[in-house]
Predict the 3D structure of the following.
Amino acid sequence: MKIKKLKISLDDKILVDIAFEIKTSLALVGQSGSGKSLTLKSFLDMLPNDMELEFDYESDFKLTRGGSISFVPQNPFTALSPLTKIKKQFFTSESRIDEILEMVGLDSSLKDRFPPELSGGQLQRVVIAMALINEPKLLMLDEPTTALDPDTRVLIINLLKNLQQKFGFKILFVTHDISSAKSLCEDICVIKGGKVIEFGKMSQIVKNSSHIYTKTLIDANFANREFRK
């Protein structure tokens, strides 16, 4: 799918003005304030009412939240109600809950527990399972590995790769974590100040970035230069 134009403005100020393509998996990378969150909210129809959006795209499916689009939030602890059992937050049959929990590597018995009784990694897999209920065409990820320890981060990235192979959905991974992005995504779009700085193959840009901003992001993520191999 091609995002031909995504322009967000407030009064007379242009906040975001970008274009990119999601072939299979794309990392949208930038520091805080770069426009990542606004871009994500524009897909999800969550922009503030005082902002204007111009959105033009080409795709073989319509971008509809809860239909063709599913969303995995940054913090599963705040995404789930702590006082409600897991199964009551899925809004589908228990047999379907069992099926989808198994797909993300969780025992079906967890559906009868409350969110505070689960680990961070388990909760992240729960919200991923919720996002898969409608078998989306596009899975949007908002920093899904930020609050996880390194081992759990690797587990979640590998799980997402396996699920993509199984379901065939496209991925838009919004993050500042280039390490996780490199492990999951084929392409990368680097934005700064609401503009695209670099766009292309992840492997090529990581090895030979043409912009100092991207190099700074990479160096901030990786002290070990083995990453560039």
